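Hello,

Our lab assistant flagged a job as stuck in the queue for most of the afternoon. It eventually completed. Since we weren't sure the result was trustworthy after the delay, we are filing this so someone can double-check. Below is the sequence as submitted and the structure that was eventually returned. Let us know if re-running is recommended.
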Amino acid sequence: MGETRITGGKYRGRKLKTGDFFRPTMSSVRSALFNMIDVEGKSFLELFCGSCVVSCEALSRGAERVVCVDRSKRALSICRKNLESLNETATIIHSDTVDFLQNTVEKFDVVFLDPPYNDVEIVNKTLSLLPKVMEEDSLAVLEKSKRIELDFSNFEVVKRKDYGETELVFLKVKR
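-- returned structure --
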């Protein structure tokens, strides 16, 4: 099983499990992400959370409430272990992301999504539902392959940053 380390905040340097069956967000990308956004005291939603390394990073940096969503029981098992290793709590939801977005009534200050890189259909479906969980001043950050083009028509693209094959796209809802 792979490992990574938290890049900043009160748990900086702590090891987290990543599993060997999915692609966690690289530490350099996580570090850059959290240097660009402030999560302190905010609600944080991680969609397609995998081992919830990004959520643990958000907790380390002071996020007030964290919700992790993934359809993989195996991933969520690692997620729970990572949270326990930090003695932190988050709401862990075993659900397909589209189902979660269709059914939740919660709103979040920051939404991070790291969907399967090559599934354009699921990413566009997720993007179409994302405004439902966002307030006017909420920020969504999408981690994606630079090779795919997506429909951002519901959003104002605030910023784009490239990290090798990976691109972070910062989005606010168009009102």
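-- support follow-up --
The delay was a queue issue, not a problem with the job. The result is valid. The first strand starts at residue 3 and ends at 5. The radius of gyration is 15 Å.
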